[in-house]
Amino acid sequence: MKKAYVKSYGCQMNAYDAARMADVLGREGYAATDSVEEADLVLLNTCHIREKAAEKVYSELGRLRVLKGERKEQGLDTRIVVAGCVAQAEGAEILARAPAVDVVVGPQSYHRLPELLARSREKRVVDTEFPVEDKFDHLPARRNKGVSAFLTVQEGCDKFCAFCVVPYTRGAEVSRTVAAVLAEAEKLAASGVREITLIGQNVNAYHGAGPDGGAATLPDLMRAVAAIPGIARIRYTTSHPNDMGEDLIRAHAEIPALMPYLHLPVQSGSDRVLAAMNRKHTADDYRRLIARVRAARPDIALSSDFIVGFPGETDADFEDTLRLVSEIGFESAFSFKYSPRPGTPAAERTDAVPEDVMSARLAALQGLLDRQRYAYQDAAVGQVVDVLVEKTGRRPGQVAGKTPHMLAVQFDAPASAIGGVVPVRIVEAGTNSLFGQALNEAAAA
Ligand code: 5AD
Ligand code: SF4
């Protein structure tokens, strides 16, 4: 049997797409492999969000060129596919820069992979169209779903933050219909999935067609997914502050399956920088929004994204970001140095922040965010929490899962506990994981 090695970079949307592309390859007779050396097909699902992410692809392709040459000497063929956002943004340029690549395919056309692979035997191919047909209608059923699964409900973004490539690589905001999402969610539940994370670049702008033809909201969709037998937990990501409506805030108080966790990128705590970023909200708008969310769900865990060193960012602007972080308190967060992206408005700016200043700001911000994360984890020690068990743990005899607040927990229990929700007393906090004891051994068994 032929073997395919699939590697995904970047966000959860890409992880979802990579899994669906693996399904397409499975239908074409490829078995999945973790070893790139033995792969007959290598697929890189790429990310274009920052320069570092995009450059990684080319170094990987350099290594693959050597590998492809070596395999060829042994009489073995290796197909190389570049998918994802670098494929979308750079298209044929990839063929020019990376001679080993056979197929370049964008995030909206990967259902055509079989045809593209067949055509690439004659001539290297590029497909970065946004086709009229919906890729979801042409994909095979999902496999290898595990306990917790991502489900794409919305793609693209209309916000045009000044630094971001997403509106260009992923295109305009499009929502899947409620019926399409429910059909996929029901299949996931029937195969043992207990937790579904509804994903989209701007998931809280979801407005898919509902059963009555009118537009449904994200809370409508959550209620419908929560009603599916077997589904214990719902999460959603990523959201924009300006689409955080009253109904979604209320959903955190009203839908028991909706977990008390919110990833809500703010990017900066300075109004001057937020305006330059075209975020269309102020730091105080964000503070007020968080206060409303906390009023609805006092124990909610917060997460965010930050960019340091946006062009023109001063020390005073950066202090505003630190102040916002100190005031709000995040359980976890992602923070990045600004990276100019070709084609975005911010890339035209000439007032770049020097690299050493960016590094110092990033270290200071990450230090503060790390302290907040450790404090959050330490506060869990002694508590009893419900853990959804996802897999076997690091050590034999252990399993691993997540708390409602997304903290990772390891504890002793047989593998039969996987898929269950087990009350666990937390006894110790490590750096990236908590350690606990099942409250009731029988429940874990
Ligand atoms: N430079 C640095 N970080 C960026 N992000 C998006 N574009 C850029 C960029 N050009 C970050 C934002 C976004 C996250 C997914 O990536 O914080 O929320
Ligand atoms: Fe990019 Fe802004 Fe859209 Fe997020 S909201 S995907 S940062 S343009």
Strand order of the largest sheet: 2-1-3-4-5-6
Q: CATH fold name of the largest domain, please?
A: Rossmann fold
Q: Which class best fits the helix and strand makeup?
A: alpha/beta
Radius of gyration: 23 Å
Q: Architecture of the largest domain, CATH level 2? A: 3-Layer(aba) Sandwich
CATH top level label of the largest domain: Alpha Beta
What share of the residues lie within helices?
25-40%
The largest sheet, given as strand count, sense and whether it forms a barrel, is: 6 strands, parallel
Total strands: 19
Number of helices: 14
Identify low-pLDDT runs: none
Task: Report the span from N to C terminus.
Answer: 38 Å
Strand percentage: 15-25%
Chart the SSEs and their pairings.
Layout: E1 2-8, H1 12-27, E2 30-32, E3 41-46, H2 51-73, E4 79-83, H3 84-90, H4 92-97, E5 103-105, H5 113-119, E6 125-127, E7 148-152, E8 154-155, H6 166-169, E9 174-175, H7 178-190, E10 195-199, H8 218-226, E11 233-237, H9 246-254, E12 261-263, H10 271-276, H11 283-296, E13 301-308, H12 315-328, E14 332-337, H13 355-380, E15 384-392, E16 398-402, E17 408-412, E18 421-429, E19 434-438, H14 441-444
Parallel strand pairs: 1-2, 1-3, 3-4, 4-5, 5-6, 7-10, 10-11, 12-13, 13-14, 17-19
Antiparallel strand pairs: 8-9, 15-16, 15-18, 16-17, 18-19
The site of 5'-deoxyadenosine has 12 residues, from strand 13.
